[in-house]
Amino acid sequence: MDSGQAMAVCAYGWGKEFRLYHEYLSIGSKRYRLCDLTEAHTTFRTLLGVPSASLELEFGREKLVLRGIAAIDQVRSIVEYLTSWCQKVDASMMPVVAVPVCLVPGEKAHYSANATLCGERMQETLHTYPAQDHGLLILTSKRIVYLGRKSQIVLDFAHLLHISRLRGAVAFEADHWQKRVIFTLSRPEECAAYVEAILRTHNLKSGETHDVNRNVYVLANDR
């Protein structure tokens, strides 16, 4: 992790502070990677004429609330930076894109990006995944499609078990696959956010009420 100078140091509560770095947030003795951040927003209140803010953060299933922040303008700037990492997608605002795939009636493509199909890292000390194929990763309202130069992969969302956000990559696990499939992309957090939004829409249409984040969408540590 980057151990350089903090972008911002902000006091909260009684004598506490958190530090914002380019790729992580330091709170007390713990560091939180920003690539695992799924939600960030602030609330404001005025007590006895003194304004203060609370910073609410979600890293996957872990929720944090930092209260008693007096530096209102600073926390606004911090949240603006943090939300750029979240990439939460409004399901009702997802674009419909043209893709080189024959879609079934009622199916729409919402996401398309160049992606590299990769294998697992050979050593834990390596930060890159070995490339196996290059192609196009497509997310439709019904499935995940990968059109590579050497191979093609199609996965219906009904069979998706987990999606993990890795360093510069995403990994999919399916109920009929023996191992996960890894793709490196220029903006993996955007891809993961689109999957979450599509799953949320699918669950609402099918009448299911379970928590998408808890049952399918899992933000895993880089491994």
Give the topology, please.
Elements: E1 8-12, E2 16-20, E3 24-27, E4 30-33, E5 37-47, E6 50-59, E7 62-69, H1 72-86, E8 109-118, E9 131-140, E10 143-148, E11 152-156, E12 160-166, E13 169-174, E14 181-184, H2 188-205, H3 212-215
β content, as a range?
A: 35-45%
Gyration radius over CA: 20 Å
The number of distinct β-strands equals 14
Our measurement of the CA-to-CA distance between the termini, rounded to an integer number of angstroms, reads 14 Å
Overall, the morphology is elongated
Report the sheet with the most strands, covering strand number, pairing sense and barrel closure: 7 strands, antiparallel
Briefly note the CATH topology name of the largest domain.
Answer: PH-domain like
At the first level of CATH, the class of the largest domain is: Mainly Beta
Order of helices and strands: EEEEEEEHEEEEEEEHH
User: Which residues sit in consecutive blocks of at least 5 with pLDDT less than 50?
Assistant: 204-223
Annotated CATH homologous superfamily of the largest domain: Pleckstrin-homology domain (PH domain)/Phosphotyrosine-binding domain (PTB)
Domain count: the total is 2
The largest sheet has its strands arranged as: 11-10-9-8-14-13-12
| Helix percentage | 10-25%
Identify the CATH architecture of the largest domain: Roll
Can you count the helices?
3
Query: Whole-number average pLDDT?
Result: 83
> Helix/strand/pairing class, anyone?
alpha+beta
Keywords:
single chain, 223 residues, alpha+beta, PH-domain like, 2 domains, seven-stranded antiparallel beta sheet, four-stranded antiparallel beta sheet, 3 helices, 17% helix, elongated, disordered C terminus
